Amino acid sequence: MDLQRLQTFRTVATLMNFNQAAEVLHYSQSTVSAQIKTLENEIGILLFKRVGKSIRLTEAGAKMLVYADKLLAIKEEAVAEVTGKNTVSGLLTIRMPQTVATHYLPRVLFDYQPRFPGMRLDITSCAMHSLEHELRIGTVDLAFLFADTIGAKNLTSELLCIEPLAIVTHPSHPLAARKSADFKDLEGQILLLPKSDCGYRMVFEQALTTERVTPATIIEMNSIEAIKQTIKAGIGVTFIPEIAIRVDVENGEMAKVCWADDLETGVLMICYKDKWRSPAVEAFMAAMRRQLADSAEKSQAIEQAGRRTPSPARAAG
Fold this sequence. Notes:
It contains 12 helices and 11 strands. By secondary structure, it is α/β, with parallel strands linked by helices. It has 2 domains: 1-86, Orthogonal Bundle (Arc Repressor Mutant, subunit A), CATH 1.10.10.10; 108-307, D-Maltodextrin-Binding Protein, domain 2. The strands form 2 sheets. Strands 3, 4, 5, 6, 7, 8, 9, 10 and 11 form a 9-stranded mixed beta sheet that branches. Strands 1-2 form a two-stranded antiparallel ribbon. 27% of the residues are buried.
C-alpha cells in the first residue's frame, strides 16, 4: 500500500475537501482525485461519499483513517530512528479509563511531553471487548484497565497499583446514614454505572446477579463527571473509584456508603505479548509506573495519618 496515497487520503479526510487538500499537498485537484480513486480500487471499497456539495467518510473510510494514521506514524518514527534525529515524532494511541486519565494522566504528560515534544498522542476510553484485537493489529499501542487480571493469552499485563472503590450517594440518601451496608441494600435502588471505566463495573454486576439483587433501574453514562453531578442532584447510587469522589466527599457534596467489605480493583498496564515497543512507548510506560507508584505512596500516607488522628467527636470526648 503506497504511503503517498495514504498521506493524500488522510489529508482529504482531515479537510473533507479535495480542493483544499490539493493546495496543502501542492498537487492538482485531479492528482488528488486520482490517488484516492487508485486507493479505493486497491482496497475494493469506497472511502468517501458525496452528500450534496460536500464529502463524508464512509464507514470503511473511517476505519481506514485509523490505519492510515498508524502507518504514517510508523514511517515517521522509522525515519527518525534510522537517521538519528533528536526529535522523535509519531503517533502514540492509548486506551485508558476516564478516571485514570483525569487523576493521573496530567502529571504523566508533564513528565513525558517535554521529552517527546514531537509525539502525537491519541488517548481514548477503554473498549474491553476489542482490546486484544486493537493491540494485536497496532491501532492501539498501549492500554490501561481497571481489573485484577486479564484472561487474553496474547496480552501481557502489569499491575501498577491497587485502587480503592466506593459505593457513593447523596448525603441525604438513607444508605448514607447506615453503619454498614451490603449488596442486598441495593435492592430497588437507582444505580448509575459508567460505560467507560471498564473492568470493575463487570465485577459489580456479577455480584448483583450472585446476590439476586434487582435495582429499580440502571442508568448508564459515558461520563464519570455526569454520574457525579447526578448523584449531587440527589439521584441514585453509584460504584466508582474512590479517587474520583474524594474531594466531593470531603466537601460534603457526596457521601460514601459504609460498605461491609473492602472494595478495590487493580490498575493494569497492558501490551501485546512479545511485540516490539518503541522508545516513546517505553518512556510512557515508565512515566505511568512512576506516577501511580508515587500516588499510591501518598494515598497510604494520608490513610495512615487519618487513622492516627482522632475524630472531632473522640477528641471532644
